[in-house]
Specification:
The chain is an alpha+beta fold. The protein has 13 helices and 15 strands. One of its GO terms (biological process) is phosphatidylinositol phosphate biosynthetic process.
Length: 480
């Protein structure tokens, strides 16, 4: 059908002007609504942030700070990821383990707004939880950890940091607020190795509930935006929260280069001494026949596993508490600090969109940056005065969280040992073989640290037997 009158070029121009005016009006209305929405979001989130900052059961939005620390964002993300991942696993009904559970990986994505799977988080990051069902069973059935205690300890607003720099590996670790657990970063190769041996580790713990090998409670990964991936484990803290450790030794059975300078040790009560310090000081594990037999047998079983796994470089960590000295030196408090710092200002481009760039997300980040932090008082670090937790279930940790020295009549003496086999994630690979060859050129290749796993396990076990009361002592292990 033809129109009743023709459309002229003048009509078209007028129509175009009307459309443009309407479009401009729509744009103005949209801009006005968007501005109002963002203002309302800021007001709402200000109220929300004020409320959240008072919550004590998680690390989210906490304004309390301690010493500034370069790893704050990473630690915050670790604690947040643990809280959500472990809580989700715990909320499900227990099931028998399958082979797939040992290789399982559960992924979580966190941002400032949150989604149906994860709540709002202070920073944007991704989190992976490895073999959650396996570690849950280890924690609950074999390590006797209470799930609520575990989460409460690890996901507080602040944790404890030990003074000092990271170890040779570049890894760092921090203690949970009650000093029971350690969060330790590990290299990607160690992470892959732990996953590979997880089933053998699980079976060993199941068959040897009193094992001295490190207790792994969880394996996780954090990935920051445009950043590297950080793998870390949750472990037991071998040393107790309620006792000062007066001497610490890291014993491998190797004596080449295994000495901490005594002049430095005299000034540093927290120094980790080594094999030659132990031998030269004439130390021995003062254990009567009963405890000596139990410890020897467990060390034999543990070293057999480590040999089968093809690892080396592990050691027996020995902490010594002198009951006559007690806690009067306050070693723990003098070497710990509160860790929950504020963050420097972060400038972000204010783009409007969905997800992390939405008005709500932008408003929340502004609140975080402008929050007025309050410094934590040192008195916030409250360490328990008696043994707590799961240690009483295990033979070698049932005497005030450790193993008390006994005489030949099995009567108690005034020393408590805290013992554990640590650093078990170093396989004897090509690099270690090269290190064995290179160090063997200038020293006795049987007394250097990097030796093949069968030899390492045999030497390790022989050394530990030798340095117990009744043994021949560690002198024969010294290099000529």
């Amino acid at each position: 059908m033809q129109p009743s009158h023709p459309t002229t070029f003048e009509d078209v121009g007028e129509l175009a002007d009307d459309i443009e005016q309407q479009a401009e009006q729509i744009r103005r209305e949209r801009m006005s609504k968007r501005a109002k929405a963002q203002q309302e979001a800021e007001r709402a989130l200000t109220r929300s942030a004020t409320t959240l900052s008072r919550v004590d059961d998680g690390p989210l939005v906490g304004n309390l700070i301690g010493e500034d620390h370069v790893n704050y964002v990473l630690m915050y993300n670790m604690l947040t990821g643990i809280r959500i991942a472990v809580s989700r696993c715990q909320a499900k009904i227990r099931k028998p383990l399958t082979d797939e559970d040992y290789t399982a990986r559960h992924k979580y994505s966190f941002d400032i707004v949150g989604n149906e799977l994860t709540p709002s988080a202070k920073y944007d990051f991704k989190f992976k939880d490895y073999a959650p069902w396996v570690f849950r069973e280890l924690r609950e059935d074999y390590f006797h950890l209470d799930p609520a205690d575990y989460l409460l300890s690890l996901t507080a607003k602040y944790i404890l940091s030990e003074l000092g720099s990271p170890g040779k590996s570049g890894s760092f670790f921090y203690f949970s607020r009650d000093y029971r657990f350690i969060i330790k970063t590990i290299h990607h190769n160690e992470h892959k190795f732990l996953r590979r041996i997880l089933k053998q580790y699980y079976e060993h713990v199941k068959s040897n509930p009193h094992t001295l090998i490190s207790r792994f409670y969880g394996l996780h990964r954090v990935k920051l935006p445009h950043g590297r991936k950080i793998h870390f484990v949750i472990m037991n803290n071998l040393f107790p929260a309620h006792k000062d450790i007066h001497e610490t030794y890291d014993l491998k059975g190797s004596t080449v280069g295994r000495e901490y300078p005594e002049e430095k040790a005299a000034k540093n009560p927290r120094a980790v001494l080594k094999d030659l310090n132990w031998i030269n000081r004439g130390k021995q594990l003062e254990l009567g026949p009963e405890k000596r037999a139990l410890l020897t047998e467990q060390l034999r079983r543990d070293s057999e596993l480590l040999k089968d796994l093809g690892v080396m470089d592990y050691s027996l960590l020995v902490g010594i508490h002198n009951m006559r000295r007690g806690n009067r030196d306050n070693v723990r408090r003098n070497t710990l600090k509160v860790f929950s710092p504020d963050m420097p200002l972060i400038n972000r481009k204010k783009t409007i969109g969905k997800g992390p760039q939405s008005p709500e997300a932008i408003a929340m980040r502004r609140i975080m940056r402008e929050a007025d932090p309050q410094r934590l008082d040192d008195t916030t670090v409250v360490l328990p005065e008696e043994d707590t937790g799961e240690r009483q279930h295990f033979i070698f940790y049932q005497d005030e969280g450790g193993l008390r020295a006994t005489d030949e009549a099995n009567e108690n003496m005034d020393t408590i040992y805290y013992l554990g086999v640590i650093d078990i994630l170093t396989p004897y690979n090509f690099l270690k073989k090269c290190e064995h060859f290179w160090k063997g050129l200038s020293a006795d290749r049987h007394k250097i640290s990097p030796v093949p796993p069968p030899e390492y396990a045999s030497r390790f076990f022989a050394f530990m037997k030798a340095v117990m009361r009744g043994g021949e002592g560690g002198g024969r292990f010294k290099a000529e």
